[in-house]
From TrEMBL:
GO terms for biological process: CAAX-box protein maturation. Keywords: Hydrolase, Membrane, Metalloprotease, Protease, Transmembrane, Transmembrane helix. This is CPBP family intramembrane metalloprotease. It holds the Pfam family Rce1-like. The lineage of its organism: Bacteria, Bacillati, Cyanobacteriota, Cyanophyceae, Nostocales. One of its GO terms (molecular function) is metallopeptidase activity. InterPro entries: Rce1/LyrA-like_dom. It comes from Dendronalium phyllosphericum CENA369. It comes from the Bacteria. Residues 95-183 form the CAAX prenyl protease 2/Lysostaphin resistance protein A-like domain.
Length: 198
């Protein structure tokens, strides 16, 4: 009985509608925070513009992050357990077409706040990248046992933050974030569906 309780999630499993509403509400809250910060904080949004080279750079960065995540998942047990818990809660209730929203909503709203507003507000330097990445990591905390996932999200935040500064275009981390979410969630979902069939 005690063993079974150890494996129960710290937050209850959600329905598909609850996950979609939570994603939408989180995206709206992050958007509102970003807008208020821009309005009252005397901050300019980090520039972003359409550029084919930066689009391809974002895609390449997203594929690289996905590959690194796969390696961390394979070789780091604490990260694997933490990621499985997080993905089980978020992805299990969703249908495959819902993964579109899982890419777009966080990819746009989180990049708007953490790289688009927070980086310029904190000074567009290495300290700004580190602080915004720590905040980004903590956003992914869903339970007291989730610190490996938070650490990983912080590392991803560093990669996305420095890619923003180096490229000079917010499009790069937006595309990288959306690409990473789409590919990793799709592969995880297909892996879980194959387990059910077997």
């Amino acid at each position: 009985m005690v063993e079974q309780q150890k494996h129960e999630p710290e937050i209850p499993y959600l329905t598909r509608i609850q996950v979609l509403v939570a994603m939408g509400a989180t995206a709206i809250i992050l958007w509102i925070v970003a807008k208020l910060w821009l309005h009252f904080g005397n901050v300019s949004l980090f520039k972003w513009y359409w550029d084919q080279k930066d689009l391809l750079l974002g895609l390449a960065l997203g594929l690289t992050i996905t590959a690194l995540s796969g390696l961390a998942y394979r070789f780091c047990l604490p990260y694997r357990k933490s990621a499985d818990y997080y993905l089980e809660v978020v992805l299990s209730p969703l249908a495959l077409p819902d993964l579109i929203w899982l890419g777009l909503l966080p990819g746009l709203s989180e990049e708007l706040l953490f790289r688009g507003v927070m980086l310029p507000a904190l000074g567009l330097d290495s300290v700004a990248v580190i602080v915004s990445s720590l905040c980004f990591g903590v956003l992914h905390l869903s339970g007291s046992q989730q610190w490996p996932y938070v650490i990983w999200a912080t590392i991803i935040g560093l990669i996305l933050g420095f890619s923003t500064l180096i490229s000079g275009n917010l499009l790069v981390p937006i595309v990288a974030h959306i690409t990473t979410n789409w590919i990793s969630s799709y592969f995880w979902k297909m892996w879980k569906l194959s387990q059910i069939k077997n």
